[in-house]
Amino acid sequence: MDAETDATSSHVIPDTETSSYLPPSMLYKRVNWDVFLSFRGEDTRHIFTTPLRDTLKTKGLRPFMDDEGMERGDTIQPSLDEAIVDSALAVAIISPRYADSRWCLDELARIFECHKRVIPVFYKVHPSDVRKQRGVFGKGFQEMLGDSNRFSEAQVKKWRWAMENIGNISGYIYDQADSTDESFTRLVKLSLMYITWLLNKVFGDSTT
């Protein structure tokens, strides 16, 4: 996707073959949220995450997206923590400035602490740079840490653990060379596949 794309634009996602992805008998058993979207607002809110959320909603899924931003305190807000806990899985959109936000890193660490299945989307970053905290991604992390000791060693260790974990997961690499509609379609289908598989695994389909 071109970084210069109008932030207010939306992308039409071609319809898939069927509009129903979950057996009817499972609908009443679902958690409050099917997908928790973790992202850096300045990088991807308008150009990627919002179109993805809207597309998932048109497919009958319930994505959670923090529309207001979480940089208002020192810890994850209770509502966000509850959303993580009560989501079937997470999609972590890892972008160049993701690691310069302590709130994004707290969120990512919490996702792993809750043992959630995560679909990584590496948006204009390479998984190895995320895993090793290097390149533009690593630079943002170092700038966030600064020269002070305002973060505890345990806290920094937890963040590094989360970044190593997400960098080791086979995910979806999204860069400027991608065809926008095709990339969105593939990502949505991947998300739907994981959600359906997970809900079937956890709850089972009583119709079979």
Question: How is this structure best described in words?
Answer:
With 208 residues, the protein is α/β, with parallel strands linked by helices. The protein has one domain: Toll/interleukin-1 receptor homology (TIR) domain (Rossmann fold), CATH 3.40.50.10140. It has 7 helices and 5 strands. It has helices at residues 41-58, 78-85, 102-113, 127-132, 135-145, 153-167, 180-203, and strands spanning 33-38, 63-64, 87-94, 117-123, 172-174. The chain has a 5-stranded parallel β-sheet, with helices on both faces. Helix 3 (102-113) packs across helix 6. It starts with 32 loop residues before the first strand and ends in a 5-residue tail after the last helix. InterPro entries: TIR_dom, Toll_tir_struct_dom_sf.
**Strand arrangement in the largest pleated sheet:** 2-1-3-4-5
| Multimeric status of the protein | single chain
Total domains? 1
Number of E strands: 5
CATH H-level superfamily title: Toll/interleukin-1 receptor homology (TIR) domain
User: How much beta, percentage-wise?
Assistant: 5-15%
Number of helices: 7
Poorly predicted regions: 1-20
Element pattern in H and E: EHEHEHEHHHEH
Structural class determined from secondary elements = alpha/beta
CATH architecture: 3-Layer(aba) Sandwich
Helix content bin? 40-55%
* Outline type: globular
CATH-assigned fold name: Rossmann fold
Please outline the major beta sheet. 5 strands, parallel
The CATH class name reads Alpha Beta
Q: How far is the N terminus from the C terminus?
A: 42 Å
- Cα-atom radius of gyration: 17 Å
Mean pLDDT: 78
Organism: Beta vulgaris subsp. vulgaris (Beet)
Keywords: NAD
InterPro entries: TIR_dom, Toll_tir_struct_dom_sf
Protein name: TIR domain-containing protein
